[in-house]
Design a protein that fits this description.
CATH superfamily of the largest domain: Aminotransferase class 4, branched-chain amino acid transferase, N-terminal domain
CATH architecture of the largest domain: 2-Layer Sandwich
Number of helices: 8
Structural class: alpha+beta
Number of strands: 18
GO molecular function, one term: L-leucine-2-oxoglutarate transaminase activity
Protein name: Branched-chain-amino-acid aminotransferase
Shape: globular
Strand content: 25-35%
Radius of gyration: 21 Å
Oligomer: single chain
Catalytic activity: L-isoleucine + 2-oxoglutarate = (S)-3-methyl-2-oxopentanoate + L-glutamate; L-valine + 2-oxoglutarate = 3-methyl-2-oxobutanoate + L-glutamate; L-leucine + 2-oxoglutarate = 4-methyl-2-oxopentanoate + L-glutamate
Order of helices and strands: EHEEHEEEHHEEEHEEEEHEHEEEHE
Helix content: 25-40%
Organism: Acetobacter aceti
Number of domains: 2
Family: Belongs to the class-IV pyridoxal-phosphate-dependent aminotransferase family.
Length: about 375
C-alpha cells in the first residue's frame, strides 16, 4: 500500500466553470451552505489497497449502489472548517491540523479507516487552490469547507465496510446567525449523546438525533436548542452543533468539560487558549440548568455565548425552559465586552489582523 506522501492528486479538466459574473452574483449574499464551488476532491479507500486514486475534479453527483453501507448503517464522519481572505489578499485556513486529528479520532470511533493527517490537509489545500476565486473577502464572509468520509461498500451485513470514499466540497458563506443575540430553548425531552456513545465523534448520526429537538426549539420561538446530560438531565452540554461558554461577574469564564458526550470543538479550544492568554480565569466544569437560570437572574452571570466553526462566536441573550419560562442574560440585546473581545481576537487571528502566536493559521496561497 502507498504511503500518504506517495499519493499524488490528478486534476481532471472542468468543461463548465462558473463565469466570473455568475460567481459574483452567487457570492453577493450567499445562504449558508447553499452555493457550490466548481470542484471537489475525492480519494478512495479499499481494504488491502489503502488510500488511492486521489482526484481534483468537477463537482457533481455521486453514484451509489442501493446497498451502500452508509445508507443502512450510517458509517459517516465529517469536518467543518473555513478559508479566509487575509489582509494581504492571500488565503489561509484556520487550524486544519486540529480538524485532521479530530477526523482521525472520529474515524477510529466509527470503525472506519484513519486518513493520514498530512493527506487530509493536502486534500483541503488542493480544493482551496482549485476554487480560490470562490473565497470571499467580506468581514463576515469565508469559504466553508466540508471534508467527509462514508462507507460505499455494497453489502447488507452489520460489520465495518471494506470500501470508503473521502471527499472535500466547499461553499462561500456569510454570517451563520443574523446580528444580535440568539434565544435558546433548553430541551428537557431529548438528549444529544450518552456516555459510551458517539458524542465526541463528528458523525452525521449525532446531528440527525438533534433535529427533532431543534424543531422543538423553533416551535418555541427560539433560534437554537441546548441539550442537557443524558444521565441526570441537569447539566448543560452543547447548544445544537456548538459549544457553550458562561461569563461571570468576577471576569471568569467556564464551559462544560469534555466527558466523551461533548464534541471537542476546535473553536472551543481556541477560545480557551485565547482567554488564558488574556489572563482570564478559565474553568472546564459541570454547570446545571438550575444554576444557569439562578445566576442569570441574580446578575452573577453576565454573558453567555456559543462558539463553533460556522458561527464563530455568537452571544446568547435569553434562555427558555418549559418549567422556568424565559430568563434574559444581561439585558439580552447583544454581545457583552468579554464575548466581543474573545470574538475579535479569534477572527483577528483567522484574518491576519492579530499576531498568530500559536501557529494556527495555515497559509494556502
Amino acid at each position: 500500500m502507498s504511503s500518504a506522501e506517495d499519493i499524488s492528486f490528478e486534476t481532471l479538466p472542468h468543461s463548465n466553470l462558473t463565469s466570473p459574473e455568475k460567481r459574483a452574483e452567487l457570492m453577493a449574499n450567499p445562504a449558508f451552505g447553499r452555493i457550490a464551488t466548481d470542484h471537489m476532491v475525492m480519494i478512495r479507500y479499499k481494504d488491502g489497497e489503502g488510500w488511492h486514486d486521489a482526484k481534483v475534479m468537477p463537482r457533481g453527483p455521486l453514484t451509489l449502489d442501493p446497498s451502500a453501507a452508509v445508507l443502512h448503517y450510517a458509517q459517516e464522519i465529517f469536518e467543518g472548517m473555513k478559508a479566509f481572505r487575509t489582509e494581504d489578499n492571500g488565503i489561509a485556513i484556520f487550524r486544519p491540523d486540529a480538524n485532521a486529528r479530530r477526523f482521525r479520532s472520529s474515524a477510529e470511533r466509527m470503525a472506519m479507516p484513519e486518513l493520514p493527517e498530512s493527506l487530509f490537509i493536502r486534500a483541503v489545500d488542493e480544493l482551496v487552490k482549485a476554487d480560490r476565486d470562490w473565497v470571499p473577502s467580506g468581514e463576515n464572509a469565508s469559504l466553508y469547507i466540508r471534508p467527509f468520509m462514508f462507507a460505499n461498500d455494497a453489502f447488507l451485513g452489520v460489520k465495518p465496510a471494506s470500501e470508503y470514499l473521502f471527499l472535500v466540497i466547499a461553499a462561500p458563506v456569510g454570517a451563520y446567525f443574523s446580528s444580535g443575540a440568539v434565544t435558546v430553548w433548553v430541551s428537557e425531552t431529548y438528549t444529544r449523546a450518552a456516555p459510551g456513545g458517539t458524542g465526541a465523534a463528528k458523525c452525521g448520526g449525532n446531528y440527525a438525533a438533534s433535529l427533532l429537538a431543534q424543531a422543538e426549539a423553533k416551535a418555541q420561538g427560539c433560534d437554537q436548542v441546548v441539550f442537557l446530560d443524558a444521565v441526570e438531565h441537569r447539566y448543560i452540554e452543547e447548544m445544537g452543533g456548538m459549544n457553550i461558554f458562561f461569563v461571570f461577574d468576577d471576569g471568569s469564564i467556564s464551559t462544560p468539560g469534555l466527558t466523551g458526550t461533548i464534541l471537542p470543538g476546535i473553536t472551543r479550544d481556541s477560545i480557551l487558549t485565547i482567554a488564558r492568554e488574556k489572563g482570564m480565569t478559565v474553568r472546564e466544569e459541570a454547570y446545571s440548568i438550575d444554576q444557569w437560570l439562578a445566576d442569570a437572574k441574580s446578575g452573577r452571570l453576565t454573558e453567555t455565548f456559543a462558539c463553533g466553526t460556522a458561527a464563530a462566536v455568537s452571544p446568547i441573550g435569553a434562555v427558555r425552559t418549559k418549567s422556568g419560562g424565559e430568563v434574559k442574560i444581561s439585558g439580552g440585546t447583544g454581545p457583552g465586552p468579554v464575548t466581543s473581545a474573545l470574538r475579535e481576537s479569534l477572527i483577528g487571528t483567522q484574518r491576519g489582523r492579530v499576531a498568530d502566536t500559536y501557529n494556527w493559521v495555515h497559509r494556502v496561497c
